[in-house]
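ENTRY TYPE: paired fold submission
RECORD: A
CONTENT: sequence, then structure tokens
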Amino acid sequence: MRGYCMNLFSSTHHRERFLLTLLLMVLGVAFTLSDGLKRWDLTLYDLFSTISYQDSSDTVLIIAIDENSLGKYGRWPWPRRVHASLINKLSEGGARAIGYDVIFSEANQYDPEDDVALADALARSKRVILPVFHEKVPGDGPLQLTLPLPMLMDAAAGLGHVDAELDPDGIVRRALLRSGSIGQGHPALVVSMLRLPGAGDEANDIGRQATIRTRYGDSPVYVSFTGPPGHFPAISFADFLQPDFPAEAVKNKFVLVGVTALGLGDSLPTPVSGKSIPMPGIEYNANLLSGLLNNTLIVPMAMKWRLLSAGLLALLPMLLYPFLSPRQSLFVVALLLFSTLSASLFLLHGAQIWFPPSAVLIVLGLSYPLWVWRRLEDTIVQLFREKERAQVILNSIGDGVIATDVSGRVEYMNPVAESLTGYPLSEARDRPLRDIFPVTSEDRRRDLTDIVERCLGEKQTITMQDNGFIVNRNDSEHAVRTSAGLLRNASGKAQGVVLGITDVTDTHKMMRQMAYQATHDLLTGLPNRSLLYDRLTQIIARAGEQKTLAAVFFIDLDQFKKVNDQIGHYGGDQLLKKVGARLRTCCSDDDILAHLGSDKFVIALNQVPDADNAARFADDLLRVLEAPFSMDGQDVYITCSIGICLYPKDGRDVDELLKNADTAMCRAKECGRNFYRFFSRAMNDRIHERLDIEQKLREALAGDELEIYYQPQVRARDGRLIGAESLMRWKNSEYGPISPARFIPVAEDCGLILPMGEWALQTVCRQAKSWQEVGLAPLRVAVNLSSKQFLYGNIYKMVSRALVETGLDPACLELEITESLIMEDLAQSTELLKELKQLGIRVSIDDFGTGYSSLSYLKHFPVDQLKIDQSFIHDIADKSGDEAITLAIITMAHGLGLGVIAEGVENQAQLAILRGQECDEIQGYFFSRPLSMEQMTQYQLEHPAA
């Protein structure tokens, strides 16, 4: 020990550590003695005390003067004969003690006999304790004690105060078991009740009185609440005085009589007063009495023990830190913080002692940064220097590098930078960066050379989030990505900025091309649904800000299928291009014309003065299509039906506007085609139909009308059964079979898709296990997931529960998820897929190729299989484009180690092509339509699984 003490002062570092330890101990003592942290401690007390509640004593009962009683006996105050009647019945019922929390401090001048009746009842009972309390004299006068009438005091069994201690934050947590600040001291009302002779058995009385004296004394105690306001057992005053109400209900009870009606009597804010609901004073006293009976009142820890705890806990980490690394030190201080909170919580609920932990928590929190600051400082400086060196080196290899001084004048350029700017270093030196490197945003509206000023101002490396564009002195345009790092001298002062410039011209062109392809229809070159949503959102926002109208026109070509049959699919595609070109002539640059696929177009007008103007625009659209289209030497006539929807009258967002415009278009077709209709609320008949479907769908879910069909999936090379896709079917008792296309969207909208999906998952897993139990070979079953199930339905828990409850091997379950669903929230989707894969199930991307996700993300998805959408399979034998797409998907999937299944195979020609392309699995009517459970069982018997 002597050697350790000598080493303690053998160096400056050790002396600093000793002084630091001493400082923390002094801070701990100072914080403990100070009232500055009292509010923090009270907040922690409220949090801890409401984690669990104490059990209420079964011998304590409230007789409540509540709203029911006021309704029967009239406005307050009541005649004292009413109170006398209550005391008589309580005494008759055998109450141990009666605490009457109603002050009778003034005589009844109009009926003196009323006071006499109450006094007689008190004298007969000999079990009633009346309240006294301190109140402030009007003005600035001192507190004075308010007592009952002398005749009532003489008749009562005793007096007790009902004062409560108010904390600085205005919350009542504590109570005085004895008040003696003014005049003669009085015990608390509930203490006086316990002191009544015969209030309990003699042994318990003696022990309880000793506990109150030794454990609680005269200091304030914290009340241990049994629950929030209104929780304590109570009987209505009016109900108890009913002739048929048994008086024996209060036998051997400690009865408290007081006001609980809102606006009458005391209302105390307490830690358990959730939603700002105060606690009636009588209920507060009931909690206090219950705590005395159960010995669960909470006493504050003695100051000497608090000071000792603060000192020891301040010393402990400083003794441990020298032997620990910074990371270990952080763990230790976190452990000590947690232990302090846990100890405070344990003492509160286990020993009914309140230890305020704020002072210790602050000292522990300060100990870590004060101790490791020097080590952290060295680490930060070293990391900064390494980062600066690495940043300069990386920015100088293969990229342009420009160094400037603090005023933004060029000091150095490497050859790559000279090539990008067109300036040699000799000409560029000492010239402003803006003259040499005039980088701007893509729209040429923002000057991005302020990156130097930003780097100097923020004193950190700055990277432009968007590509910059530069037209150099040779009129050559480049797309660049620029970052700026701060150069410092030996003293740490900024002496300039180094720009790292990467030429991303080729990458930018490729990304623009990919972005164009992702947002435009490949056939017509018009914006697709994705870009329409984006642009229409902007139009809606602008119209909302400017308080103008916007219009959406949903255009569907009339009888296009017949025209398509007439001129062939290729001719139909060419016709769609020409239709798009004509419609575009009606639009301005601020409007958007989109092709949604097939023969559907949408036009969104940025600003429309009124509905008449929208009608004239629709007339123009109909008129522009009147002229025939020349297709391979023949004239083709085409008309269209148009649905018009106005913002904000007919919809507030993109989905609602498009839905209502589509509804109006369908109505226009019903009116004879080559026509337009405005959306009206009368068209909501279909919505009512959807509501009817929703109601019957709820009944179907509860009435077992839903059933699962299974469509076999076979191996492409030999046609052997390997799996089945589960499909939900609904046969309604009123409508008969209802197409999934009708009820699934309704289920999505109303939220029924979650219970339906869980039911389907449980049913499919149970059926797959059942097939195995009857001796059939294990069969992989696929379940489709909706967006709500996948992103918002806790799918991981749902799947794991289904597997556990049914006992199905996870390898026999496959989930089908569309790529567009995954791309709704890429990060969340990827994490969900990883969690699902950990269960051992298979994951397949359904309808692959129809979404607009970037293929670059595909390699990051933890999936097993791609499912080629049937839209590519339908014309695969007739269209080389579809054949090329399927081949590309299969090749790409195999390159990523994924399997491929094609759906919608209906003939031998499609099957032959897919086999030639080495597609792994097949599904479609060529092999089997969806089968009921019984049919699928028979199918497995006839076609054993591979």
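RECORD: B
CONTENT: sequence, then structure tokens
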Amino acid sequence: MQSPKEVIFSFVSGLMDGDGSVHKSRNVIQYATVSKRLAQSLVILLQHFDIHGTIYTNAKCRIGGIINDRPIKSNKPSISIEFKGDSAQRLGKELNLMHEENSKKLNILINQNIGKSNYEVLPYGSIKLFQELSKNHLGGGWYKDDNGNKFRAGIKYPSKTKIRYSKDLHSKPLRISQIIEWGIQDKLKKIGSELFEFLNSVINNKLYFVKVKSIEKCEKEVTYDIQVENKHEFIANSMIAHNCMGKYHPHGDMSIYDALARMAQEFSLRYPLVIGQGNWGSVDGDPPAAQRYTEAKLSKLADKMLEDIEKNTVNFTPNFDNSMKEPIVLPSKVPNLLLNGTSGIAVGMTSNIPPHNMNEVCDGIIAMIEDPEINSEELMKYVKGPDFPTGGIILGRYGIQLAYSKGKGKITVRAKCSIEKNRIIVSEIPYQVNKSMLLEGMAELVHNKTIEGISDIRDESNKKGIRVVIELKNNANADLILNQLYKHTQLQTTFGIIMLALVAGQPKRMNLRDIIYYYIAHRKRIITRRTQFELDKATDRAHILEGLLIALKDIDAIIKGIKASKSVEIAKKFLIDNYTLSDKQAVAILEMRLQRLTALEQDKIKDEHASLLLLIEELKGILASQEKILNIIKQEITELKNEFGDERRTEILDISDEEVEDEDLIKKEDVIITLTHAGYVKSNSLEEYHSQRRGGTGIISTKTKEEDFVENLFVANTHSYLLCFTNLGKLHAIKGYQVPRESRYAKGIPIVNLMQLEKDEKVTTVLPVTGFSSNINLMFCTKKGLVKKTPLEAFAKPRKGGVLAIKLKDNDELVIVKLSNGNFEFLIASKKGQAVRFSEKDVRVMGRNSSGVRGIRLVNDIVIGMEIAKPDSNILTVTEKGFGKRTEISEYRFTRRGGKGVRNIKVTSKNGNVVGIKTVMETDEMMFMTENGITIRTPVSGISSIGRNTQGVRLIKLKEDDKVSSLARISASLIENKD
């Protein structure tokens, strides 16, 4: 509406050209859409220009038909807006349609003589206005004004016919435009009618009227507050607070108002006891508005807590100044202590009972009534656990079991989060967490770089629910960041359960069975006292009716005796002495109206007496039977469940406390991890690398900075421990999910961000392991040919700064580390093409702080790799110029460690030095990485199997300035899983 009128109708014209139609015979302009919001907004927009439309919805999806020569194809309900009559003409004059056919129809519609719109009809206008005029009409068109002066002002139709001659005038609809045209306004002003101001307001404010679609009668609701009539639905909270303070709680109105506000907050109580109007605070910690701005009334559930309080069901005690009485407890048909919980502290004792689900609590109560010996563990089949109003997730059942069996326990509550693309969506937060402070805490962690990878945090919450959007950076691992948020923020909290309450005025810590047992005992007392009250009332009434029945049998004599008595006391004595009546019966007879003497009234008395006798027997039967009382409790609880029961909001995850680790919410999957010479690391999904035949050009795996190249590539699982061994002989342990997930074109992040490395220290080997077993060894091999065997369990407790894995001497460096079971054979290969095959048993077990023994004797050479020599497998050797070959293990003769070995591959200027070896099977695949970041993935079966003393075949085409830097094997089982 802030745009100029020309702009608005240009927009509307565009809509009509696209999906509008003009019906000249019906004088209708129609617009069709599938967007309900667009239809409503368009109608509201045009109402500002006195153009009124009606929305029609076709619930069925339309498929077929033609509008504006175009077929209709829709799988959504269609919505149409129709502008009729003069509204259609007003709209048509503003439209500028490009569609030629519609434009012609529009010109015809605009120039037609169209009647008045029904939107102008003034309800009951004809009757009310002409009745008003008739009162002041003197005859012949003469009227008397408010000063008593006569004036003549007849009302005529546009055809000059006098309106008063119209016989059906009062039944005709009267429109606002007719009131203006006929001058009715001026006449009402002259005669001083009150209707003039009303009509003036309608015309000036351009008010229109529509028919009421339906009128529904609401149930009567009772309001509980002294000094306020029952006809009031809502009560100003100032009155409630001050009445309460003056009569029951003289300790300040703020504590009263705070308690009232909490009972109205849907995020505080699972089942609110107060329905409020106005601002009652928010989950962001905003306080409620001042008392004078809010109103409240009891909810239907709260009515159930007060039910039967007038039937002597509970004891009353004097208030603070002995001027009034207040109930010690409420009859409370509702098990509110469990449903809404409670929290408080006094005289050194703390209570913190969580809220629960109505359906579950009711089922638990019924189960205990049917089996009084049921224990807390069995009750947990019905009462699953706390059910918070804000939802969330409870991790594990151990804390719940402890609280329900011992009366005290702790539970871990998490927010409900989901990961969508590159963002984290928070839809539910833990109970009693301030959302605003939660977001501030997140922002502080991002600012302090405690959590990295978050680019933006937005609160998109509204009346429909909570929605917090955490935008992540492109290279961020969403699972890892979510776990860090759980660890460092209130997205995960601990709720301490202490089930302490007053029992007969004494504080007592109770388990689940105790609370339900005392609730049933309370309801048994309430029903017993209520039944006794109703029995006493029925008995008294039956006694009175018996007296009336005695009187009716001899009514003539009784009337004569009463008339003869000089006073009421004499008449009462006459009845007691002559008819053996009690004092109450005699008074009732004297107060009886004469209408009760009719035959019909006498029958009513007899019927009432008979029904009371049956009721008395029924009530006595209830009091005499505990089983009937329990059945009444079951019936009432079932009604409560049917009326107020709902679905559980808080989810309970069946996991043990030991299993609740950060990685529990991280997807288990195999990833490709790359590490560059300059120390940049990242992970990619294995599926990003499609298989190619040997000799292909490959795909870009990572983008490296100038003078950097990829040095390590391996396959790992996100939940594996990644044992990172450095060239300086140290071990750093991280988790697979800690390596950030990035695109193939990204260079990754510096590995120093994940571990603490010294100057010139770089990772040479990464081994994924699931645990630190005592039956597994680590076999180390250094650049100078030393080997060492150390049990894996020796590294079970790595420190943040790393631990020493092997003691290196004479500028030696660690080349590779392998896992072994103690019975493997190993093959060590050198850069110049030599290899030695030996048994692991030739190497004794050593500690972490040892250097090892000689594995291969080198002459002007260095070790480039060590592989496990598996039987029936091949050794794949790759050179720096992209050549390689497979050779069967059997071709390498078995020797002891420390020898020079045999020729592995023929090294020439054509193929270059050896860069790596791998033990492979026929069904495996290989990945090769170059210094410029080019990767190729190819089946092992496509690589030639030839002898040791050969140069190999071309595996990857390289540019002149590029060399192969590393290689990795993809096992057959991994390929099958991905397929």
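NOTES ON RECORD B: Confidence is low (pLDDT under 50) at residues 223-232, 973-979. Residues 512-553 form the longest helix (42 residues).
STATUS: closed
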